[in-house]
Specification:
Layout lengths: L2 H18 L8 H11 L5 H13 L6 H40 L4 H29 L3 H16 L4 H13 L4
Helix pairs in contact: 1-4, 3-4
Amino acid sequence: MTGADQLVDLAIVFAKAGLVAVGGVITVLPEIKRQVVDVHHWMDGPSFAGLFALAQASPGPNMLVVTLVGWRVAGLAGATVASISLIMPPATLAYLMASLWRRFRGALWLRDIQAGLTSVTVGLIAAAALLLAEGSASTLGAATMVVVSSAVLVWTKLNPLWLLGAGAALGALGVI
C-alpha cells in the first residue's frame, strides 16, 4: 500500500467517525479502534490503548488520539489528514444545520431527537470504556488494576488522577 493510499484510508476512516461522533471522539472510539487495529492493521490493541492514554494525559481536546494515530500511520501528513478528516465533515454539517435548528427549536420532535441522542451518547461512552478496559487488561495485574480502578471511580469521589498516578507507579515498579 502506498503512502497516498494510507492517507486516503485515514481520511475515510476519520471522516466517517467524525460524522457519527455524537458527544465527541470518545463515543466512536470502539469503531476507530476496530478500523485502526482490526481492519487496517495499522497497530495492535495495546499500542492503540497506549496512544489513547497519552492523548488523555496530554492537555487539549479528546480528539488528540486521532492525530496520534495519524502520526503513527503516516507521519506529519497522516496526523494532518486524520485531524482534518475528523473535524471538517461534522463542522460543515453543523454549519449547514444551524439555520434549520433555529427554525425548529421549539418543536417537540426536535426535543425528542435531542433526548435520544443523549441516550446514544451514554451508550457509546460506555462501549468505549469497555473497549479500553479490555485493551489495557493484558496481564492479571493490569486486569486487577482495571477492575479496582473502575470500582473506585464508580463508588467514590476520588479524583481519577490519583488512580492514574497509582497505575503509573505500579507500572514503573513492574507490578503491572
